[in-house]
Amino acid sequence: MSEDHKNHRRSTMLVHAGRKPENYFGVVNPPVCRTSTILYESFAAYFSPNVKYRYGRVNNPLSNDFEEAVSLLEGGFKAISTSSGLAAVTTALVAFAKAGDHVLIVDSCYPPTRFFCQRRLRAYGVEVEFYDPLIGAGIADLIRENTALIYMESPGSGTFDVQDVPAIVAAAKARGVVTILDNTWSAGILFHPLEHGVNIAVQSAAKYISGHSDVNLGFAVADDERHYKLLKSAAVDAGICAGSEELYLAMRGLRTLEMRMKHAGENVLPILEWFKGRPEVQEIYHPSLPGAAGHDVWVRDYAGHNGLMSVLFKEEYSLEDVGRFVDSLALFPVGSSWGGYESLIQPSDMTTCRTKWDKKGVFLRFQIGNEDTADLIADLEQGIKNLKS
Ligand SMILES: *Cc1c(COP(=O)(O)O)cnc(C)c1O
Known about the structure:
11 strands; 7-stranded mixed sheet; 2 domains; binds pyridoxal-5'-phosphate; 12 helices; globular; Aspartate Aminotransferase, domain 1; Aspartate Aminotransferase, domain 2
């Protein structure tokens, strides 16, 4: 049924993607499918190549329905689902890189992606090179004979640098290099990497897709059968699979994803305005701001923004000063992750997240949730008084 929705507009597709009421006695949402063992019809069936389900870890009705839904979301051939967003990233990297290869990884990638490349890929004999997120067509100069893949994340983590994906893809295609893009920021709503020729889109479904800070889940979508088979065999070989409850919750999240993101994107704007007027701030990071890294590309290629922003405080404020401010806030607890309904702050040591980070000052990322922004601003107003002791 949901294959039919390829021709529908995105909002309509999000209502129907992956749903199969006819398979489940009319039940609207595909039910949680708890299974490891799946019984064969007969002894002979065990040896048949045409059996749809062999073992729950490899695939099962719910993982199939979810993968079909996210494949429609990203406009791909087929998807794999994984136990976390990071597992989707690492499975995609492992699927396309081997010993002796050279890989190009964007310098503004999600920090654990960076650590996987530094600690694991290098240990397996892959040459890892980090490149400037604003490199654009200049990436052509970094491609070597043995370059196996170019990894993008746009906008990047923390600083939200927007990459010129079409320019990078053009350079990659000219040399037959596979491209992978972490599309978690856009959730598949604000940007469509496969439409720009990217081969693999990866996402964490722990962010806006599930939307309630209660799910660890990821997926990767391939543009064609050959890339899908490489991804799937890497996942099967490493025993990567997704939990059934998580698949159910993320699939349910898809139904309201668009409106939740729209609301988050609206709620961040008054907070950006408030920070713009604060003398304690050195720099604000959000792709909608003129002068933001890759702002023009964001205007050209993206359909909007989400509720994430970052702030670099002036050098004169110590970690202790900023800690006093943060701890005095009632509506902004400190916590990792984003895309949930509640506001959060995450501090970052940017020197461990970039090849070179020269800026001085404490860096905080804000996830703006669904609270009333007047309450959020009142909280920030009272809290900022505690920045100076
Ligand atoms: C959170 C995040 C991930 C990892 O997702 P998990 O589900 O937490 O493993 C990957 N990429 C980006 C951009 C993220 O923000």
